[in-house]
Task: structure prediction
Amino acid sequence: MPKITFFNLPEDKRENLVHAAKKEFARVPLNQASISNIIKDAKIPRGSFYQYFDDKEDAFFYLLNSHVSAYKMHFLETLRKNNGDIFDAMIDFYTAIITEEKENLQFLRNLFLNMTHRIETVMARSFSENDLNENFRKIGNLINKEKLNVMDEQELFHMMQIISSVTFHNIVKKFAGELPFEAAVTNYRTEIYLLKKGFLSQ
Amino acid sequence: MPKITFFNLPEDKRENLVHAAKKEFARVPLNQASISNIIKDAKIPRGSFYQYFDDKEDAFFYLLNSHVSAYKMHFLETLRKNNGDIFDAMIDFYTAIITEEKENLQFLRNLFLNMTHRIETVMARSFSENDLNENFRKIGNLINKEKLNVMDEQELFHMMQIISSVTFHNIVKKFAGELPFEAAVTNYRTEIYLLKKGFLSQ
DNA sequence: ATTTTATATGACAACGTGTCACATGTCAAT
DNA sequence: ATTGACATGTGACACGTTGTCATATAAAAT
Result:
């Protein structure tokens, strides 16, 4: 978490700094990003940066968290729009992510191509966590379970885990530049379809 | 790839260096590993390191590749032992990975908790690739497709993609230390079971 | 023996990080 | 207005790491 000083900053100065950080993390992934670049771009002295953040990662995770919050809202909305159909919602969501604009796109690209467990934990707070916690419940309640082949909360939880694994992986593949947009969506649709019908014939 | 000089090295000196590198990459993940530590441990001058490798990553991926080759063989064997039952084979394989010994375990831990796309690409060469390539065919041929709810090679490929996503994710969770051994296996079994039966009721 | 080629070595420049002593600003109390 | 207390700004600096390069040494070829 950024220090209090950061939040006490006059808005324009704070936004300026945030913008410089965003730019650097859009340029290269976390491990290659340099504080030097950020302060050079934001035109603040080195010491000031440390007045606001503990270190590079602190700044990165601050940005990441705001991204995640936005996507979380977006996802809940998408789920509602699709009347609780988790599969259609995921497809919408997937499409939205890989259709981001310029700067966000580069940020996301660096993010997904360098997805450490620590980052994943923050990301996944959106819709799955270690325990069946609040976020999971919120989403769980929105999901239409009528046609779902699910016995209990446990199974639902694991289904969400699977869907999230598969989605993450598809996003990564897309960002790896291995596929054009249409092919990426088709592939994802296929995998969702396979998840629905199951791997064993009845 | 290491340079020719590396392979021309007398065996003991080479193994010494490899061991030092292994030790460093078991200590910390790639991005935190330092060449300084490796050469200090291997007792070779700095210049020599660059005679053998391009950089840190070169050394890392050399080690990774040998790991992967070993696991690849192991996996094919496991698949045969299970008479082509991909699900049982995966469960065996999963169990084997999370049951590794000391140094390997730490190496794998750092690996999976910091799985970049580049690393994943190397790892996944074992049993899935962009195209339906040789490795995929080799495994595809070993898989018993009798009871598999699969229409064509395409679907089989995507099933493998899904299984691999889910497996990766389960390994990461285990290494994140969130679960004791038994719970980890149970969870993985549950997810494989869910994949088999499908998410929609017929 | 002499030349050519391969390998070894460590000092060095360039760069990035986090800290710290000191400068400056803010504001309430007197 | 002046003071003092506290918050914030600043940049030089020590430290660690990386990759290179000129030079030394060894090995092979002629």
